[in-house]
Amino acid sequence: MADTFPAEEHDLPVTIPVDGAKLHGNLNVPAGARGIVLFAHGSGSSRHSPRNRYVASVLREGGLATLLMDLLTAEEEAIDLRTRHLRFDIDLLARRLVVATDWLRQQADTRDLKVGYFGASTGAGAALVAAAQRPDAVGAVVSRGGRPDLASSALPAVRAPTLLIVGGDDRPVIAMNQEALAELRAEKELQIVPGATHLFEEPGTLEQVARSARLWFERHLGQTAGARKTSSTGR
């Protein structure tokens, strides 16, 4: 995969007020979108992450809207480059995700869409904490090379079906994901991609992540609440 990823024609730049400042994001809502996936970037990353932008493009091919956003302000990012502590402030990152989720529920194009979280690295821990805090809004979580163990005591409270994807050669993170999997009480699955390291840079590995994420979100976000009710009562 290329190191850079071109801007999407239908990306809409958005700003989300939070903590007296503004977070920047790129919102893309395909016609007839069946759900929306909010990306929680990991250690030192941003909405410009080529890996997450690639995954977002695959999700949109499946009829899912996407919101790639910065979880830190420009000033906070500058501080984090020096101290590297804000990227591990899971409570802060989770609060930002909750604010963004509430913002989506207020926008005309997205308010009726079930939300999914795609978290990478420390962003996965924040995504699970936020999912526990917004159980009625969040319909699914996918973690890529994530640190779900950082969600700690929030894990048993997560109701959203959760898919944990880890590289087969990322052994320390495999163990962390196995421990977190045992704590989750919702529908859950651990998928290990053979031959992949932490960043899924090996040929074909990120594509496998994107396909798995798309299938997971399509399964859990792909029906409206009304359709799910009709389906369950019609059996």
Polypeptide structure, described:
The protein is an alpha/beta fold and about 240 residues long. The protein has a single domain (about 10-220), classed as Rossmann fold (3-Layer(aba) Sandwich). About 35% of the residues lie in helices and about 20% in strands. The chain has 7 helices and 8 strands; from the N terminus they run βββαβααβαββαβαα. The protein has helices spanning about 50-60, 75-85, 90-105, 120-135, 170-185, 205-220, 225-235; strands spanning about 10-20, 20-30, 35-40, 65-70, 115-120, 140-145, 160-165, 190-195. It has an 8-stranded mixed sheet, with helices on both faces. Helix 1 (about 50-60) packs across helix 6 (about 205-220) and helix 3 packs across helix 4. The protein starts with 11 loop residues before the first strand and ends with a helix.
CATH superfamily: Alpha/Beta hydrolase fold, catalytic domain
Task: Report the top-level CATH class.
Answer: Alpha Beta
Low-pLDDT sequence parts:
1-7, 224-235
CATH level-3 fold name: Rossmann fold
- Mean of pLDDT: 87
The side-by-side strand order for the widest beta sheet comes to 1-2-4-3-5-6-7-8
Structural class by SSE content = alpha/beta
Which percent range describes the beta-strand content? 15-25%
| Helix share bin | 25-40%
Order of helices and strands: EEEHEHHEHEEHEHH
How many domains make up the coordinates? 1
CATH architecture: 3-Layer(aba) Sandwich
Distance between the termini: 44 Å
